[in-house]
Amino acid sequence: LTRSPYEPLTPTTMPARLGGLPEMTRRLGPSAEWRVREVGDGNLNLVFIVEGPAGSLVVKQALPYARVVGESWPMSLDRAYFEHEASMRLGARDPGRMPHMHLFDREQAVQIMEHLTPHIILRRGLIDGTRYPMLGGHLGRYLARTLFRGSDWSMETARRKADVALFAGNVELCGITEDLFFTDPFHDCVRNRHNPLLDRDVIELRGDRALKLAALRMKTRFCTSAQTLLHGDLHTGSIMVSAEDSRVIDAEFATYGPIGFDIGSLLANLWMACLAQGALRPSDDEATSYRGWILALAETVWKVFVAEFTHLWLTERSGILGGRELLEHQDDAEGAALALNALLDEIWRDTIGFAGIEMHRRVVGLAHIAEFEAIADEELRAGCERRALRLGRALAVEPERFSDIADVSALVAELA
Ligand code: ADP
Ligand code: MG
Ligand code: MG
Ligand code: MG
């Protein structure tokens, strides 16, 4: 694999190029019997499913450009390296939530990993109206464990500094987040696009100083608050689900940033899925019922996050920010509770701020969501998108309205 210079794989060349790897043949059987499909629904990368007589695997390879735009948007192959490094860490911090990695080749920007099956992308499941009883618990614990265990409350100083330095190298993908989330949607940028029926809303939005100040406030949090190693792209298209299992994929945007960023990205996508239900379900009753399930899912994610984060803070707080000398060791349990509550309040405020920004970029920025794009009727779609902008603005500009996640659920239900 490494003896040749970088070259994109194809279904035709895959058996010859990877057929000598025991990591492949042990799990698949001989390369002459492989069947290879490219399945990347992919914004950025090539993803192949390789099936053989003994089993199946996924091969993901970075391209030297962004697949969704083409060769005119060059992009570093080393994003595969950062994805692999991040996946190893996130996978170890909450074992079982990431696909198992079998092999990584930096020169070819190739990751060979477990084929998740019969899993589907969560966003697809939310469009289809499927319920996943285990999902809220899985995601709440995943968030608490990865975000706490990658933070200064858990990590020892030398390891933490070396790790920050390593992920500072993921400058290109982090820069995409800086632009695409926090800047592009709020001015007239060529990368943006929107439903033409929203022309007037977009003019209003780009003259909305309070909103732009909120975008700058959240960009400042994202860029300057290196609290933990984030997944960095944790929307419902980066989660794969089956009836009992939930997995997180696609960590190439990993960067050190604020704990609320991953949580806010995920919750925003759940809340936007709620706003699409009126147009996606066959009847109002079904829309109301399924929307209720998604709202309860979002609340479970947050509540399980808080419970697990609290547990880890009490039992695993051994890193740079241990702080027990000042609190517990002085028998000040009340002080310890105040410290934890202040931290959880800050995380909640960040979470809703980032959720509000995410909603804007998904309606008027470059990358849109399938829930809205799936609505064929332009008027219906515009209605959903407009409600997402209203919800997003309230979250970003008036965070004091939402002291609890139930306050967000109430506004989602009212708008929908
Ligand atoms: P990109 O970085 O291009 O977005 P992803 O890692 O999100 O690539 O993968 C693209 C698609 O490939 C996913 O939406 C999913 O359908 C499929 N996929 C990726 N990894 C796996 C896996 N381990 N098992 C099964 N399907 C996968
Ligand atoms: Mg994708
Ligand atoms: Mg990706
Ligand atoms: Mg992806």
UniProtKB/TrEMBL annotation:
* Superkingdom as given in the UniProt entry: Bacteria
Instruction: Name the protein family.
Output: Belongs to the methylthioribose kinase family.
GO BP, sorted A to Z:
methionine biosynthetic process
Q: Name one GO molecular function term.
A: S-methyl-5-thioribose kinase activity
Q: What Pfam families does UniProt report for this protein, alphabetically?
A: APH
Q: In this protein, which residues make up the domain named Aminoglycoside phosphotransferase?
A: 36-272
- E.C. number(s) listed in UniProt: 2.7.1.100
Quaternary state and partners of this protein? Homodimer.
- According to the record, the residues making up region (Disordered) are 1-22
Cytoplasm: is it a keyword of this entry? no
Give the InterPro entries listed for this entry.
Answer: Aminoglycoside_PTrfase, Kinase-like_dom_sf, Methylthioribose_kinase
Q: Which UniProt keywords apply?
A: ATP-binding, Kinase, Nucleotide-binding, Transferase
> NCBIfam families attached here?
MTRK (TIGR01767)
The name this protein goes by in its record: S-methyl-5-thioribose kinase
